[in-house]
Amino acid sequence: MKDYQKLYAYLPYFEKLSRDNNGLTDGKNPFVSEQHLLYTEYAKEMVEFAECFYEVGFVDADYMETLDEYGITNADEMDCNIPTADERLTKAILTKMIRDERFTSDAWVSYVEKSG
């Protein structure tokens, strides 16, 4: 089993995220640094988490097939399955979430808001 301790170190950051009058925040810094027409700049912690995700190899290259095998077809189903997901499904869900931002600006904001 690979060492994912670097990823686990980001859990407190995500647990602290909440919405205030200025948007999503960890209590100190905004989740979104800047929004532009075609892309979103995120907090340093989120960008570092995404880089760490690739660095430690927590990627499922076949994430779409994995999600299909588990019968997951949308973001709501991903969110419902996170609490009981095994490692394989967790990798697939996280890979989809990380990759979605590459193709859809604000995807990460949407996922964080959904997880409430």
From TrEMBL:
Superkingdom of the source species: Bacteria
InterPro entries linked to this entry: DUF6508
Protein name: Uncharacterized protein
Organism from which the protein derives: Virgibacillus necropolis
